[in-house]
Amino acid sequence: MSALELYSPTDLNDALRFMEHGDRSVAVIASGTDLLPRMRKRQVAPSVLLDISSLTEDLRYIRRSDGTVRLGALTTVADLLESPMFDDRLSMVREAASLFGAPQVRNVATVGGNVCSASSSEDLIPVFLALEAEAKLVSAQGARSVPLKDFIVGKRETALRPSEILTEVSFIVPRGHNWTAYEKLGRRNMLIIAMVNEALCLILEDDLRTIRSARLALNRVSGKIPALAARTNAFLQGKKVSDGTIAEAQKVLASELSLTSDFRGSGAYRTELALTYLKRLMERCCLKAGGTS
Amino acid sequence: MTKRTITLNVNGTERPVQVDSPDRLIDVLRDQLSLKSVKEGCSTGDCGICAILVDGKLVNCCLMLAAQCDGRRVTTLEGLLEDPTMKRMQGSFVANNAAQCGFCTPAMLMASWDLARHSPEPSSEEIKIAISGILCRCTGYYQIIDSVHEGCKGKGR
Amino acid sequence: MSEQVSQLLDSLKAKAERGELLYIGENVVRVDSLEKVLGSPVYTADLLPKGTVYAKLFHSSVPHGRIKEMELGAARSHPGVLGVLTSKDIPGLNESSAVLPDRQLFADPVVRSTGDILGAVVAETMSGAADASAKVRVEYSRLPAIFDPLEALRQDALKIHEKGNIARQMRIRKGDVEEGFAKSDLVLEKTYRTQFQDAVPLEPEVGFAIPEDGGVRIVGSMQSPHHTQAAVAKVLRLPPEKVRVIQAVTGGAFGPKSDETPYDVCSTAALAAVKFRRPVYCGMDREDSMVMHTKRHPFVISHKTGVSKEGMLLADESKIVGDTGAYASLGVFVIVRATFHTVGAYEVPNVKADSYLVYTNNTYSGSLRGFGGPQSIFAIESQMEELARKLGMDPLEFRLRNMLVPGKKNATSAVMDASCGLSQCVEKVVTSSGYREKAPRYRNQTGDVRRGLGIALLMHGNSLGPEGNDYGAVRIQVLSDGTVSVGSGLTEYGTGAISGLMQVASSVLGVPLSRFKLERPDTSKHRESGPTVASRVVVIGGMASKIAAEKLRSRLIPVAAQMLRADPKDVAIADGLAFDRRDPSVRVKWDDIVAEAYRVGLSLSEDGFFIAPAAPWDQEVGQGTPYVQYTWGALVVEVEVDMATGYYRVMGAHAAYDVGKAVNPGGVLGQIYGGTVQGLGYAMMEELVHKDGAVLNPNLGDYYIPTSMDIPAEFKAYIVEVPGPLGPFGAKIIAEPPIVLPGPAVRNAVLNATGVSVDDLPVTSEKVLMGMKPESAARTS
Questions:
Q1: Would you call B103 and C203 a contact, using CB atoms and an 8 Å cutoff?
Q2: φ/ψ of residue C718, rounded to 5
Q3: Residue C111's pLDDT band (boundaries 50, 70, 90)?
Q4: Which of B28, B62, B78 marks a domain boundary?
Q5: Taking the domains of chain C in order of start, what are their residue ranges?
Q6: pLDDT of C777
């Protein structure tokens, strides 16, 4: 790490200008809670860090307008936990935030950092995937929006171009009868890299039984990549909620998941958990959305 | 590697320090400013033994680059030794045997002090959450939790 | 007579009538508490002198091989590097081993594990040394490696050390197991396994050395300054007097800081200090520590146990295999304790045990709180539970029938005497946990969430026992201002034991602990007192302290008597005041007595030395009295299991320990809480994972110890006091015992809740769930 340089931009435009040349040896750093340990273990070795942590005026906000929630990239996990925005139907955001790391980590870890790591160890990603969030990517040339599911392209790989900075994560608040829920399991109760973390946003039709849209997302679906369980979600769409539907959905999920084993847990166990959580999440959401299991 | 001068507000005093880009806040606090109450237990942000307050928030300073802290307000245990709430908390820790090897004690005190100012009478659950990011291997946490209960009470005594 | 003195006299009389001792059994403020809550700079890394440079150790990247070539040029020319130390830089012996001479300081030419240290880079900054050490290139010619201790035991296995793979063997032959089995109505054979545990002292192993006086002064984080001194002296080829070692305030130890790692760290610092004529700090970070320091031995323990249908244990045959990794370290004694505890707290008339301490190419194992006890007791307590179930008997009832009580004999045929407080401990936890009401209720649950109770009993032999002479030395000096200064080679690292030892002196002298001062253990000032291990400080050190204090008291009483114009036998000292029992209105202050003693030229420095009685036992058959006394205990835990995921929580823990006499009850409770939680970590979540000899999770993000969110919501701890024959005022050890029982108690609670027998620690949610699904083809990892 001794040859490292750090650049602190004066504002967002300054940061974007710095990124203009698209130099791949530049890494954006906010809290550093993901990046710094990896640098220490020599898993990555950027030569320049672009420190955006002080750009809070531009990048740290939680806003809601026209049915869309917008989170600035520097919104911390503690901000999410404390915000009244995530009571009620969006409670899974608060749930995930409350189980995230520990107080010191929540105080500094950012939404942008979480999403850009594209890692199965980052708890917020399944939550944002289930909310069908979009990532706003800005460069000196302009801005574009990429759905989160397309933004994460591989294990720790995103669609971010070398000249871009992620400035915002946004999602449309689901309308109608809907609820969200979140489940997580690791080797102890807090401060863990979860074996499974799973989020569901369930939207029901007015009959409170038919599924208008199910968005189930997990920290790992295939290999170590956070993703929506697309086949399971497709299966659930339009079905009536029942024990039978859930059992069928579990079968679809089982075939969709391709989970690997590591010292934290076997692929078989993680799959079992994912199936159990599917059932639980469905039941919790249905109960709250006014439906019956 | 460029050295830069940053100014930290440390325990109420403006301190200009020279830092290299890779210097961590913990290194600057311990080595340049001799604030030895800040300990290092794991170097990966997983144990909380380095927990201090930056701009009033509890953070792990082993995972903060000093260069990112220009203009920020840093509070360590040394800066709270005359604070009445901290003194009560320290007395409670001593009376309740909350410090065994003592290595997690400064971090535990910082987290407890932070809790005490937000929650005058926290529940056991709230206390456990407040210290959930700080590992202790000696006490099993029980006597620390008792200490925090007692340390939060009796304000103005 | 003044109010204060009359109150004192009354309370003294009352205590005497109740047979109580002054200051003992009281919660006192530990002498070293203040500096900890003030965040004072008292730990090793806080004390570095100006101009200190830094040494970073580098280690092998292969589990077994011969070094062909070490390319150090790139490291040497890295900016800020003063040099790179390897075996070629050692003037004395390239040795760093605790007991058997099987380990080098810098491995050369053979490396036997990825934890083998090859050398150190010395640089102006720690980060510079770390960056440079990443540039060291080593070429090995690899050798085949063994990672399974059962494989290493085989006759045809590759030899990891010249003398073969068995570092030590032990046996117990009590009675005739074949006869016992023949009489048994039920014989059960099962195998249990335990994992590598890391002690995780929050302060890793660190030390610094300053060249001085033709030698070195070393300050470090360690359990045994004299052993460290001896080790460094050998490496540097210096007479021990030229190596001064001072133990700084130490941030936790739990065992590994009594093994080779402090020698490694301090020898490296000393070598560099002498070579570069600078103060040198050698500090391990967490990853270094978790790769290079000693772990808890994983064990494979097989029991074949015979019982009668009435539930009496008739015979037990065990095969005990401990994986000591590349080097034996303190494993040679761990295997002894494990063997003697093979049938735990029960009387078994016929016992046969064969134990093996085995080398493999995993990183090495050594001391860790419990020292073989956790492994052995896990096996026997699990076996007891399985037997009870097979017999259709209540697990508590089965234990009560067989447990040790005064008059019964343990595995070594030692007869338990009146100091055995096991039944009192069991009674306490059974009552506290509501076991008798709850256990039947929990027997036939059908829901998605189920509860279970698990019980485990403890016998824990005190002190070094069969490991060698158990002695301690404490020096007490009364300074001219009345301060009582206590110094010893025994070390404090969080247990509060040194404070306890001082409380003993405080009680004998009649002077409150607030007047006491603890000297930092310093080889140039304090006698060798043996290692601070085996929880022996309060018992052995306490006795030495008592002896020194009694000697001092016998000098000071005549002085006080003269000042009071009283008969020495009528003089009492309490709370720093001496008075004539027959006329308490006449009194004199401690400070004045001391001043007078100084005036007349009395020496006020006394050494107390105590050596525990010999613990004779027959090596051939493992019979005799290897321990002079025992600590007893019992633990009940209640778990709640989510049947669909296998996830469980420990809802309540009820623990009772017979500690003989609780010198500082608050301190004893601290050990019970802390040890139990460390034991819960071992039971539920801790596992240092090796793959092909490399440690996969040498950091606290991937190796999990309990946080405040993992502790049982309810924890009731009870102190039982049945005085023992060895320690001061009947005290028994407490520091290690509480870590032993959570493993089996949790395992048994989960079994009772779910029907799943998890026979290898830790009891993870995966093992619980997968145990419920026998049709699941997946092998749990």
A1: yes
A2: -125, 135
A3: very high
A4: B78
A5: 3-30+471-611, 44-143+199-292, 299-465+618-772
A6: 41
Which chain A residues are closer than 8 Å to C769 by Cβ?
Answer: 269, 272
Please identify among residues 54-113 of chain C the ones whose CB lies closer than 8 Å to any CB of chain B.
none
The residue range of the domain holding A250 is: 177-289
Lowest mean pLDDT among C26-30, C76-80, C328-332: C26-30
* Predicted pLDDT at C17: 53
Q: Which of A172, A187, A214 delimits the end of a domain?
A: A172
Q: Which residue bears the tokens 């015992």?
A: C737
The CATH code for residues C299-465+618-772 is 3.30.365.10
Assign residue B99 the CATH number of its domain. Answer: 1.10.150.120
Subunit contact A185:C647, Cβ cutoff 8 A: yes
Percentage of chain B modeled with pLDDT above 90: 93
CATH of region C3-30+471-611 = 3.30.365.10
Chain A residues whose CB is inside 8 A of the B104 CB are none
Question: So what's the architecture of C44-143+199-292 in CATH?
Answer: Alpha-Beta Complex (3.90)
CATH number for A115: 3.30.465.10
Query: How many whole angstroms separate alpha carbon C580 and alpha carbon C388?
Result: 62
CB contact under 8 A, B136 and C202: yes
Q: Are residues A273 and A251 in the same domain?
A: yes
ipTM: 0.97
Whether residue C518 contacts residue C498, with contact meaning beta carbons closer than 8 Å, is answered with yes
Would you tell me which residues 6-35 of chain C have a C-beta closer than 8 angstroms to some C-beta of chain A? none
In the numeric block, the tokens 């997990």 are attached to A218
| Contact assignment for C707 to A272 by CB distance below 8 Å | no
* H or E stretch at C385: helix C373-391
φ, ψ of residue C249 to 5 degrees: the values are -55, 130
Question: Is A211 found in the same domain as A196?
Answer: yes
- DSSP letters of C699-751? STTTS----TTSS-SEEEEEEE----SSSGGG----SSGGGTSHHHHHHHHHH
From C85, C91, C167, C158, select the one nearest C122 (Cα to Cα).
C85
How far is Cα B109 from Cα B115, in angstroms, rounded to an integer?
10
Q: B-C interface: how many C-beta pairs under 8 angstroms?
A: 166
Backbone angles phi, psi at C455, to 5 degrees: -125, 150
Tell if the CB–CB gap between C778 and A192 is shorter than 8 Å. Answer: no
- Whether B132 has its CB under 8 Å from any CB of chain C: the answer is yes
Q: Tell me whether residues A273 and C778 touch, CB distance under 8 A.
A: no
pLDDT of residue C500: 86
Task: Note the pTM of the prediction, 2 decimals.
Answer: 0.95
Residues B117 and B63 in one domain: no
Q: How far apart are CA C202 and CA C708, in angstroms?
A: 15
Residues in chain B: 157
> Regarding predicted confidence, which is higher, C712 or C444?
C712
The DSSP call for residue A210 is B
**CATH number for position B10:** 3.10.20.30
CB B5 within 8 A of CB B49: no
**Of residues C251, C286, C678, nearest to B42 (C-beta):** C286
Residues of A in contact with B133 (CB under 8 A): 101-105, 190-191
User: The domain spanning residue A283 has which CATH number?
Assistant: 3.30.390.50
Q: Which residue matches tokens 């710094």?
A: A36
Give the C-alpha separation, C561 to C547, whole Å.
21
For B:78-97, CB contacts with C below 8 A are 78, 81, 90, 93-97
**With an 8 Å Cβ cutoff, are B132 and A191 in contact?**
yes
Nearest-CA distance from A241 to chain B in Å?
36
> Using the beta-carbon criterion (under 8 Å), do A29 and B132 form an inter-chain contact?
no
State the Cα–Cα distance between residues C661 and C672, nearest whole angstrom.
14
If asked whether residues A108 and A188 sit together in one domain, one would say no
Ramachandran angles phi, psi of C429, nearest 5°: -75, -30
Does B70 contact chain C (CB < 8 Å)?
no
Q: Which domain holds residue B16?
A: 3-78
